[in-house]
Design brief:
Elements: E1 3-6, H1 12-23, E2 27-32, H2 36-50, E3 55-58, H3 64-73, E4 80-83, H4 98-126, E5 129-134, H5 137-141, H6 147-167, E6 172-179, H7 192-199, H8 210-221, E7 232-235
Parallel strand pairs: 1-2, 1-4, 2-3, 4-5, 5-6, 6-7
């Protein structure tokens, strides 16, 4: 049974990705940081859907030491690695302090880089693997008042394109999914009026669902995407295209 490792599996999108992969026959390793209750809920959903209980690992990806300790806990090399952990940063660019900048870079860019590098030697040795990054529409277009977030996601997109070229000869595919406005806990900070204003600009006329993002991940993880690499797959209802 192929193994998938999903970081940030306690979040709305992470939960859906994990459950969808389990339904498609993957054995799951689920990462979380603080929200143990949510990841246990995900574990129960997977157990119900697939009959197999996932392995759960805790780690603070904003802490470099914790990243190393997390990787050491995982005794198998994943066939699919999904970098889903992240955090929203909303505010004027000059409002953020040096500690905010350092934390955003560690969590959003350095941790995925470190985790991938931990598993790469074995992936390269067996000449197979799928590395999938959850990016954002703002990593493609940029957003006022989300400059730090846009910078991190844009960096991930460049990482995906460069790494795909480097690992292509080793039979490893590297891609990203860039969600638009999704019904998730991250967007619960917006009022109904603000949500209606955003949705009015989306040609599809509605927010996306976590399940739609998860299905995009499952496609990239599947053998059908073996010739797809270095791509940023937008799931945004033609909001920006």
């Amino acid at each position: 049974m192929p193994v998938a490792f999903v970081t940030g599996a306690s979040g709305t999108i992470g939960q859906s990705i994990a459950v969808s992969l389990a339904q498609k026959g993957y054995s799951l390793i689920l990462h979380y940081n603080n929200n143990k209750e949510a990841v246990l809920e995900t574990s129960n959903r997977i157990l119900t859907a697939s009959g197999e209980e996932p392995n759960i690992v805790q780690g603070d990806l904003s802490d470099p030491t914790s990243v190393s300790e997390l990787c050491d806990k995982i005794k198998v090399v994943p066939d699919v690695l999904v970098h889903n952990s992240g955090k929203s940063y909303t505010g004027l660019v000059q409002d953020f302090q040096q500690t905010d900048l350092e934390g955003a870079l560690q969590l959003g860019l350095i941790a995925p880089y470190q985790i991938t590098n931990h598993f790469l030697p074995d992936m390269i040795k067996r000449k197979s693997g799928k590395i999938i990054v959850i990016s954002s529409v703002w990593g493609l277009t940029g957003a006022s008042c989300e400059v730090l977030y846009s910078m991190v996601k844009g960096g991930l997109n460049a990482y995906v394109k460069a790494l795909a070229k480097e690992l292509g000869p080793s039979g490893i595919q590297v891609n990203a999914v860039a969600p638009g406005f999704i019904q998730s806990n991250m967007n619960n900070v917006f009022s109904n009026e603000e949500i209606e204003e955003v949705v009015s600009d989306i040609p599809a006329g509605r927010p996306g669902t976590p399940e739609e993002v998860a299905e995009a991940v499952c496609y990239l993880a599947s053998p059908f995407a073996s010739y797809v690499s270095g791509q940023i797959l937008s799931v945004n209802g033609a909001w920006y295209c």
